[in-house]
Amino acid sequence: MSLLLSSVVVVASLFSGAAAINNGLAITPPMGWNNWNAFGCDVSENLLLTTSTQISSLGLREVGYDYVVLDDCWQDPKGRDKHGKLQPDLAKFPNGLKPISDQLHSQNFKFGMYSSAGEMTCARFEGSLDHEVDDANSFADFGVDMLKYDSCYHMGRVGTPSVSFNRFKTMSDALKATGKNILLNLCNWGEDLVHTWGMSISNSWRITGDIYDSFSRPDDLCACNTLEPGAVNCVAPGTHCSVLFILNKVAPFADRSIPGGWSDLDMLEVGQGGMTDEEYKAHFALWAALKSPLFLGNDLRDMPASALTIINNPAIIALSQDPHGRSVTRVRRDTEGIAKDEWGMGETHVWAGHLQNGDEAVILLNAGGEDIEMSVRLAEIFIPYGPGGSAPHVKYDWAIHDLWAHRMPQETAEALLAAKEVEDRVDILKKANWYNATELPYAKGLAKEDARLFGEKIGIAEAGGVLKADVKSHAARVFRLRRVKKEGDNFNAKSIARKGEERDEL
Known about the structure:
By secondary structure, the chain is α/β, with parallel strands linked by helices.
């Protein structure tokens, strides 16, 4: 085979997997709610159905949150029945699971459930290891649309990428064989380099130990927090991983997500109460821009208005649901001269990434202990398209749009939460002219230049110049840069971005 032909074969092989698992699901990162962070094992039929009603009446389904996911502890504590089938705990789910699924579907929600690729789940109920076919058929019978598939008690079937791949592939194949198209979310905490193979068999894959409600505090239960940022693999990733730890963990492979397959940074902690408003804003915006699945983890029936005004911001969600389907990547991390916070952490990040319409998302994160002015040159922002300022983007002025500028007013959110009738909440949302993605999907809204998705213009970054912003401690400024066109130019940002991605893939 000639060298030229060999190169063509390699390129064809690389691009043949560009659609990930290619089951038509999760073309943009999935969004919804999961009970685990707020409720753990305290689950019930009433919890799921009252929460789904709240999601709908607060307008959260209309901005994209359409999965309702039942996590661990739903199983009968006595184990499998005489036929080897999993059974729900009838004390928690007296009518079984299929009626819940039917009711959620009637409300235009999708139903998610949980199991583990182990002999037990993480809460020590029956796991699915070596029962994959039976359990996949049960999930299909329950009307499940998504399976969160954990990795506890795996009987030692871990330690190399191939061993973990084969263990999870068994369930992937079993779900496919049911004939029902079920989204598979792997949860092996980043072990065995899942970011290199997860997309072959699943629609999303966890890349770190479990999150907890802290912005930067290290914890020994997040066993990998002692590793240097950038370390890709570790043993026993654990729990109690901070927002900052997870960001540093994903940074070396933030570009691995593609439509249909997403790196999962774990569920959201917004509204739980352990972080400040600015920390929650940064957490939410970075999860969105990094294309993590966005699963709310708080009690939506009892939350502060400030939390609602974070999770329902359509200009931030539009970064997640952008049809280009590429994550922001970190173009700079600084630790020298940055004031430490109360946990001894101090660093700043610049994250940037291309969007479908040629815009650029830019996030300035201050994870230090003091408010500072941050700056970044356009040459750095656009470095994926040419180092040393050679990217053609650098020759243009860029309008700076603040994506938190039109956050829902506090009083509007308070009125929404206080309203007793669904009709009253609908009226409040209509008067606020709040974005409705079920009527105008994000792809169409972006194409139509819907102002609600673009924040507010606050300035210009001049050609060859610098983007500057004051950033509070433990906060992020989130911008959408929009190229200021020159008369007669033929600049094609989309084409240039695609060429940059081809270089990355090759």
